[in-house]
Specification:
This protein is α/β, with parallel strands linked by helices. It folds into 2 domains: 208 residues, Metallo-beta-lactamase, Chain A (4-Layer Sandwich), CATH 3.60.15; 128 residues, Rossmann fold. 26% of the residues lie in helices and 23% in strands. It contains 10 helices and 19 strands. A hairpin with a 2-residue loop joins strand 1 and strand 2. The chain is globular. The structure holds zinc ion (2 copies). One zinc ion (ZN) binds next to loops. One zinc ion binds next to loops.
């Protein structure tokens, strides 16, 4: 239930801070937007002014072009109409930030998307003390427990090596912003050449410009020697799998890296040879650990399967509620393709028959 002193409320255009008169990741055009990160469901075009993290400037501009953008270093504080605003690492993708708001002795934090697992392509998640924590819960069911990324990369390398031995290309699907760079940074580049889809290239450049170390990559048109494909790892977004590159890669072994790959049905429906469970979102222990670490007495749950997490938090004695948002489109593009929704619905039905059904 909204209360009169709430620092963040939901308005038709998105999350809104009444005291500071600005929005956070709004889904409709507004005057002033604080952006947690550059994924499509959080950073939309059309706002008059943007505020975002300094390390996320390159990726935000790569996606939205010539916007009016003010940037803040992590931890730097500014005053917006009497509200102290600062950004803190969310560990999700390059530049991703939690938004901390302080006003009249109260502190609220809006998490954006986050993960607590280490990732060499972005700053690690920072627990920020607050009175109220607005958390995402993309994978907010106890069935979601990620294995360490190092083990998953071991599997990916072994798959790639096996394909090289068999003389066939390896097509690894993952969203072009965030997942692709994490894959590039994590694989063993000594196994063979790495080719990236054109959607990945500008994001790679933004990452490299920010000092993130990625192995050398080739664009499709730079592959002159056809024999090179037989040893290549090709990193491309799921949406490209049925595009023009499909001919070149018709004999490839294909795989996807996504948290949804934990659901056997998702991989089967996508018709892939392999599914690697690698997510840029927190798993259940990650969500619970992050929430507890904030010390918040009140938790507002968004962006996922809210019902189960809300009930769990209430059982721990916290004040918890769900807030409906327009986030989560990235489930289709960032976490594994159109099959993901079906897979997610299956999990919801199996594990949480009475949980919220209202998300996009
Ligand atoms: Zn995201
Ligand atoms: Zn999101």
């Amino acid at each position: 239930m909204p209360q009169p002193e709430d620092l963040v409320i939901r308005r038709p255009e998105g999350l809104y801070c009444p005291a500071g008169d600005f929005h956070i990741d709004p889904w409709r055009p507004v005057e002033r937007a604080v952006i947690t990160h550059a994924h499509a469901d959080h950073a939309r075009g059309g706002h008059a002014r943007y505020l975002g993290s300094a390390s996320g400037e390159g990726v935000l501009r790569a996606r939205l072009g010539g916007i009016t953008l003010q940037t803040l270093a992590y931890g730097e504080r500014i005053d917006v109409n009497g509200v102290t605003v600062s950004l803190h690492p969310a560990g999700h993708v390059l530049g991703s930030a939690q938004v901390r708001l302080e006003h009249a002795g109260r502190v609220w934090v809006v998490s954006g998307d986050y993960k607590t697992e280490p990732d060499p392509t972005c700053a690690p998640f920072e627990a920020v003390r607050c009175d109220c924590f607005i958390t995402e819960c993309t994978f907010g069911l106890p069935i979601y427990r990620w294995r360490p990324a190092g083990e998953v990369f071991g599997e990916i390398n072994a798959w790639w090596q096996g394909n090289v031995a068999a003389g066939r290309p390896s097509l690894l699907l993952g969203y072009s912003f965030g997942k692709a760079q994490r894959l590039l940074a994590g694989v063993d580049a000594g196994i063979g050449p790495i080719v990236v889809h054109s959607a990945v290239t500008p994001l790679n450049e933004a990452y490299r410009a920010e000092g993130v170390r990625l192995p050398p990559t080739l664009g499709f048109s730079e592959v002159k020697d056809k024999a090179l494909w037989q040893r290549a790892l090709v990193v491309a977004p799921p949406s490209a799998a049925r595009g023009p590159m499909a001919r070149t890669l018709q004999h490839a072994s294909d795989a996807m890296a996504s948290g949804w790959m934990q659901l056997r049905g998702a991989r089967r429906r996508a018709g892939l040879d392999r599914g690697f469970v690698l997510s840029d979102h927190a798993d259940w222990p990650g969500l619970v650990g992050a929430i507890v670490a904030t010390g918040a007495e009140r938790v507002i749950v968004t962006h996922g399967q809210e019902g189960v997490l809300v009930r769990w938090l209430q059982e721990q004695g916290l004040q918890a509620e769900a807030m409906e948002t327009a986030y989560g489109d990235e489930r289709a593009n960032d976490e594994g393709g159109p099959e993901s929704d079906a897979a997610s619905a299956t999990a919801r039905a199996a594990v949480a028959p009475s949980s919220d059904q209202d998300q996009a």
